[in-house]
Amino acid sequence: MDPKWNEDQPIYRQLRDRVVAMILEGVLGEGDALPSVRNVAAEYRLNPLTVLKGYQELVDEGLVEKKRGRGMFVNEGARTELLKAERGRFLNKEWPKIIATIDRLGLDAADLLQQETKKDTGVDND
């Protein structure tokens, strides 16, 4: 996890978002234990209650399960649910902005796809 925090959002929320990113990126898989509240608090010099609040949001969202005396663990299907939510958010919020930018710049979807193919293959057919 990145030890830097920004001023735009509460730290507990940033911590929650970082754990979500770790799940989405496969760093944390189903059944994996989250780092302990005590370890995260010590490593990042946070109040343990701040860490616990971030973790509790994950529990409330059904992404993480609290096992008494053992810690917190990523629930089965957490990544699938997160991907579904992220895809929906992208399609509803980000994609319309991208489409508007493409239109505003007069770009053609076929040209954009061709550019992406060139980038992926490293081949320039021009």
Task: Quickly describe the structure.
The protein has 126 residues and is mostly helical.
Q: Order of SSEs, N→C?
A: HHHEEHH
CATH class (first level) name of the largest domain: Mainly Alpha
How many beta-strand elements?
2
Helix count, DSSP H or I runs of 4 or more residues: 5
Average pLDDT, rounded to a whole number, is 90
Strand content: 5-15%
Strand order of the largest sheet: 1-2
The percentage helix is: 55-70%
- In this structure, how is the largest beta sheet organized? 2 strands, antiparallel
Shape assignment? elongated
Describe the structure.
The chain is mainly α and 126 residues long. The chain has 2 domains: 11-76, Arc Repressor Mutant, subunit A (Orthogonal Bundle), CATH 1.10.10; 80-121. The protein has helices at residues 11-24, 37-44, 48-60, 78-105, 109-121, and strands at residues 64-67, 71-74. It has a two-stranded antiparallel sheet with strand order 1-2. Strand 1 (64-67) and strand 2 form a beta hairpin.
List the keywords.
126 residues; mainly alpha; two-stranded antiparallel ribbon; 2 strands; 6% strand; elongated
Outline the secondary-structure elements.
Elements: H1 11-24, H2 37-44, H3 48-60, E1 64-67, E2 71-74, H4 78-105, H5 109-121
Antiparallel strand pairs: 1-2
